[in-house]
Specification:
- By secondary structure, the chain is an alpha/beta fold.
- The protein has one domain: CBS-domain (Roll).
- It contains seven helices and six strands, in the order ααβαββαβαββαα.
- A hairpin with a 5-residue loop joins strand 2 and strand 3.
- Helix 5 crosses helix 7.
- The longest helix is centred in the last third of the chain and has 13 residues.
């Protein structure tokens, strides 16, 4: 297998970030904002006591609170603002499959699960080194073909 084929054969489990910074549904919005600021992340998976993924809270979810005039929003539980229809990938998902989720759902991160349990997360930023490595040692024509496979497959 060539180096290029090796990159395309990568699975989500190979590039995931782990351990993952998470919150529970009872974590307050104020605490979520603090965590996101301290760790420079734009979204956090929400898990239950068994590490099952139950939601995702993102900057967008939190920004919607600015539309209300209620100053007590910081005390709200994250369950009141999180998204529960979370796109996630199995640890053995291919990189092209993962990229299709980013493209089709216009999301910034994808939780990685094993048997329903959160084991990692992949952000769009995590994919930049993969693309860089893929394109580094190829001709311009090969670059275009491989990028098409990653994005359009």
């Amino acid at each position: 297998m060539t180096d290029d084929a090796a990159v395309i054969e990568l699975k989500a489990k190979h590039i995931r970030t782990s351990p993952v910074l998470t919150v529970t549904s009872s974590t307050t919005v104020g605490d979520v904002l603090d965590l996101m600021g301290q760790h420079s992340v734009s979204g956090l998976p929400v898990i239950d006591d068994e590490q099952n993924l139950v939601g995702m809270v993102t900057e967008f979810d939190l920004l919607m609170l600015l539309l209300t005039a209620d100053n007590s929003n910081g005390a709200l539980p994250v369950s009141s603002v999180m998204s529960t229809d979370v796109v996630c990938v199995d640890e053995n998902a291919s990189i092209p499959e993962t990229v299709r989720h980013f493209r089709d759902k216009r999301i910034g991160r994808v939780p990685v699960v094993r048997n329903g349990k959160l084991i990692g997360i992949i952000s769009r930023r995590d994919l930049i080194p993969v693309l860089r490595d893929l394109l580094r040692d190829t001709s311009p024509k090969q670059e275009s073909e491989m990028a098409d496979e990653l994005v359009c497959a």
